[in-house]
Batch of 2 targets.
Target 1
Amino acid sequence: GAGVSQSPSNKVTEKGKDVELRCDPISGHTALYWYRQRLGQGLEFLIYFQGNSAPDKSGLPSDRFSAERTGESVSTLTIQRTQQEDSAVYLCASSLRENTEAFFGQGTRLTVV
Amino acid sequence: GQSLEQPSEVTAVEGAIVQINCTYQTSGFYGLSWYQQHDGGAPTFLSYNGLDGLEETGRFSSFLSRSDSYGYLLLQELQMKDSASYFCAVRDVSNYQLIWGAGTKLIIKP
């Protein structure tokens, strides 16, 4: 596609439920990033993929969070047993490895009630 | 490790010039980038400095000094639509990961 696509754009879930957030990067972009952004705050790094490998998982806040990427394309961020503190916008970005410009999707706004 | 520091908030007047600074501590990086994010929107790329010096793109300019571990974004002829958060970022040479500053909220007054 022309840009980074994330789905769903909005998600309301009950506390304790699992959610899956999807990111379709720009075709050919080998690097993919997930960030969390709370209202009025900066970008909180979650995980980075180079191809299908995740060299840096240090940002995942707990073992309830996991992510995978397949075919050097689509990535899924899964949050298990959601908590109210997980409510935030989850942003995905992709870039060419050697090119510094990152392209962001519009994000998934997650609300845990 | 890598870290970038920016002021949390800057206030300026419409039509004026404002400079947003970014200082960093990094063992090696591929240049400094700037991104703009409007409330409710996604960050969008503004500029990149791979080499020391000034890069100009319309009303926006960006500067990098590797010897001083310092860069800045300069916005001229401020317009109300420039009200947004601005993030600096570097790409780590060891793993190509993007490292981000915490962002500067630019408030523009009429």
Target 2
Amino acid sequence: EAGVVQSPRYKIIEKKQPVAFWCNPISGHNTLYWYLQNLGQGPELLIRYENEEAVDDSQLPKDRFSAERLKGVDSTLKIQPAELGDSAVYLCASSRGVEDPQFFGPGTRLTVL
Amino acid sequence: GENVEQHPSTLSVQEGDSAVIKCTYSDSASNYFPWYKQELGKRPQLIIDIRSNVGEKKDQRIAVTLNKTAKHFSLHITETQPEDSAVYFCAASPALFSGGYNKLIFGAGTRLAVHP
């Protein structure tokens, strides 16, 4: 089966600019996760979706970050405006259900100048 | 909340030797423990996982052991090969099968280098 797809793979922007990341989960996977991975660290959960509903967004900085998962399949994560400290890899993962293993996409490496 | 510590941060072995990476967790309710391998610039790849009703699980050259009393789990790689070189992350998930969900808390990672 095809894996989790993310785009773009790399993004360079100047601070205060907006940026968006896109994720297509594995077909049939109802649960979708967005993670932040800083250099040299493990991924940290930002938000989890069950179908189209965001059921855990407690770690999402809501002043500048937003996410959506229309129709319960693809998802986008947006940052507006971006700050220097947002430079990181943004990973998307999906699982068949809430108690199933998670499979990650290749991530989007964001550089904010 | 859950906290996962991982050791060592770097590990260097000769090809053919064994490698062991250890993790400890703080939340006794955690009951799912996956391991991910991440090569440079690539996605974290699930290589093995274990649930709390099992003490050991093996898949070819890799194995994971779990000690719930001590709250630690370990990854064992035998007969290491250069292609095993990567960063390995452990993770713990609290409250799985108890109304919770697979909320992974990751360790900081171990950079494994296998030298030919």
